[in-house]
Amino acid sequence: MSARPLVLVVSPGDETYRGYCLEQVAAAYDVVLLTGAEPSWEKPFIVDHATVDLTDPAALLAGGRALAERHDLAGVVTWDEWNLVPTSRLARALGLSSNSVEVMRACRNKATARTLFARHGVPSAASMKARTLLKAGLATMTVGFPAVIKPAAFAGSIGVIRVDHPEELPAAFAFASQGANRSREDTGVLVEEYLDGPEFSVECVTHHGKTTAVAVTRKHLGPAPYFDETGHTVDATDPLLDQVAPAAAAAVRALGITDGVQHVELRLVDGRPRLIEVNARIGGDMIGHLVRLATGIDLPKAAADLACGRAPDLIPTRRGAAGIRMIYPDTSGILAQRQINTPFAAHTPWLRQVQWIREIGDPLLLPPEGDLFTARAGFYIVTGRTTAEVTERLDTAADEITLTTRADR
Question: In 350-409, which ranges are E strands?
Fold first, then answer.
């Protein structure tokens, strides 16, 4: 029998974007898995599993209880946005460490979060809920233009759109509503003040109510009016971290989070941080992997440590930088060609990964017909000494990548 603590992971995610999380946790813990599909790539990293319908709260709870009867669990953790609330409920039912269900619900619902930010004096954006187009129009009379229309409880910038003029509102409200209707928690739409400034995220770790900002991620967005994320860079020595860390910690505190890893999104408006949202899990788009490449800090292991009541190791062991860039087509269509210059890839050590996620013949749909999930053909990751060097290398690699689409007939 292994002497290592045993942690239950709820919903491992897909191998492409979350495989590193499970691998890093399994390096320190024995892992049992609660998953919606029979394990495949996960098998080398787990000792047991239960397959349940993760969209059914009762089934998820029953599956977790069954695993707890077979194993002496030290903690329960998830990095899946959709399962934050059920995982908290499961941990509490098993008598294991967790934030409360109410706290996780507040993190999932942007309207609730805005209310708590205001109550605790955390600068964010003016926000009003709108169930109908009429109410959205009335809300814009308060928040003004430009405004942001978004689902109250979704993720991945899906359904988020900027509106500059009143005549754009009907189409924008329909776009946001389409995203909101996919939520299992709240199908409402928010009308918010547009925060005009560069966007960042702060990768935080909270232990017993004390939040440590371990890295700041500089975000790159696609063309307006959408907010699709096209890339990220992390620099271990980024001076911006000290500037935005207090606001991120204040936002985490306002939501009542006591333990866990947080991905806190904000913008700098006139040089001052304004909160967008707090995600109570490791950031997506490989951001946790970038943090490790740049700083050496292991966020998946930290999340498991906290779930098991242990203090995480947050001491940086590297002082570098890393970046990811998503590969998108210029126009929607059928993927006709995708390739990278093979000699370049083979002889470029700072090009850490090139990952294709679409095959020839697959449709690639940009907004408004699609979203970031339907539009991406892949991504690539580079490392360097500084943000400037990483950015230069991202541009260099882009010139070696070919992606073309053809019209769908």
Answer: 351-356, 363-364, 378-384, 401-406
